[in-house]
Amino acid sequence: MSERLAQARAWLRQDPDAETRDELAGIITLAASGDTAAMRDLDDRFGSRLAFGTAGLRGELGAGSNRMNRVLVTQAAAGFAGHLLQRVKGTPTVVIGYDGRRNSRRFALDSAEIFAGAGLRAILLPRLLPTPVLAFAVRHFGADAGVMVTASHNPPNDNGYKVYLGGDDGGSQIVAPQDAEIAAHIARVADSGDIGMLPRSQKYEVADATVVDAYVAATAAVSPAPYGVQEMRWVYTAMHGVGWETFSRVVKTAGYPAPRVVEEQRDPDSTFRTVSFPNPEEPGAMDLSFARARAVDAEFVIANDPDADRLALGIPDAAAEGGWRRLTGNEIGLLLGWRAAKAAQGAAGASLACSLVSSPGLGAIAQAYGLDFHETLTGFKWISRAPGMVFGYEEALGYLVNPETVRDKDGISAAIAMLGLAADARVQGTTIAGLLEQLGAEIGHFASGQVSIRVDDLSVISRLMAALRGQQPSAFGTRAVASAEDLAAGVSGMPAGDVLRYRLDDGSRVVVRPSGTEPKLKAYIDARADSAEQATTAVAELEAAVRELLAARS
Predict the structure, then answer these.
(1) What pTM was computed for the model?
(2) For labelling alongside 127, which of 8, 38, 399, 544 has CA 20 to 30 A away?
(3) Active-site residue among 65, 104, 111, 152?
(4) Which CATH superfamily is domain 228-443 in?
């Protein structure tokens, strides 16, 4: 315990943040007096370190190496600066953005000062802005790298550090081995001692509003409003995030009617006071949106997550509780993929891309329209690198509709593309639900589902994956497993991933993997049938079978 206390005291001495200093000092005092709960707390905070990976950093705010705080962020910035100085000829340029979460601006300022102190050209975005604006800015400025301080849709007390690379990477997120190289630089900084010894400088630039203006113009051009949609009634929520200011400008520029806004969730609020979990996928997260939609007799609901890199959509459904339902990420992805395929039909080398856990329906669309199709590992770091991609998506509400300007998921440009689809449907006398029926009639009816198990102990996930590998399932319920793939060694030219994929004898599919950003094990289920009802029934049966199997193996 004496070693842990010494570690915590060394951290305390270099912490520039009064709040986390006071927090840690209190825990140290209790632990030194023999308080067992405080000792366990110190072990949790200092027994490991938040790992820097292809998703950057993400975790709970607080003192310690296993939390997000100013010490950890400063070490990360200094390590990333070292990596860029080694990687880039001349003076590297890095753009820094931040959202409305707790400490986001402070972490962004620390990063800008450390980058400038290391001799980099550091450009701080002018105010809190959506993640897609930062991804756009990397390409706009021709920067060598970008950093976005955000935890996206994670719980309120989380924050994160998302890293992009310019140059040959084109503004995409980092992939291996870059993550390990950056992590090694960060480790050297952390081992070298007090962050107070790192050079800092106030000589960073603050970008003017023209970068936001350029993003607004480029995004509005994704799908300008057709004539005759000014009576379209729709609802928008920013889910207490940073989407509204930018999105409202894009909507106006593109010529769409202004939405009815969920006022309680319009402005940034780091407490996310009206939702227990600020993720549109979570049960109850869109309840206020649906209430607003019922009150104004809306045709659909559009929602962004807190950093506006994801898009959710709700439509009227008499069979759903309250008369409204949220479309799945796959339903939105197939509609947007259909839109892109029509525009690119037959173009040489053009492709549609999605993660391997997203609906195989996108491959059916690509085949129908003479386009190439690529399946990738999960994450836009992979999807954005698919050759010839004109559209890419993943089922977790992420969509890339304008790869020439943003090489990451972008909930604002996806929302504009969806507004265009809704407006065209309206002109044709149909609805978004009608478009789904048309698409099903054209390529077959695909349905998807997901079983998600949240854990407190990450070892539970590794044990479950090991149990599935050790005893391969022969069936999911009444459906026999026709083939099984373990992607740990890499298949079909893809890098290795901790993923198990089962193809069933009726054409259905089950994919199991740990979440990359949350303490969850996820199973993704897809089925295709002659009708939407048949596909939905197959998915429900498979969900029950997957839950039963995982319970038996846990």
Answers:
(1) 0.94
(2) 399
(3) 152
(4) Alpha-D-Glucose-1,6-Bisphosphate, subunit A, domain 3 (3.40.120.10)
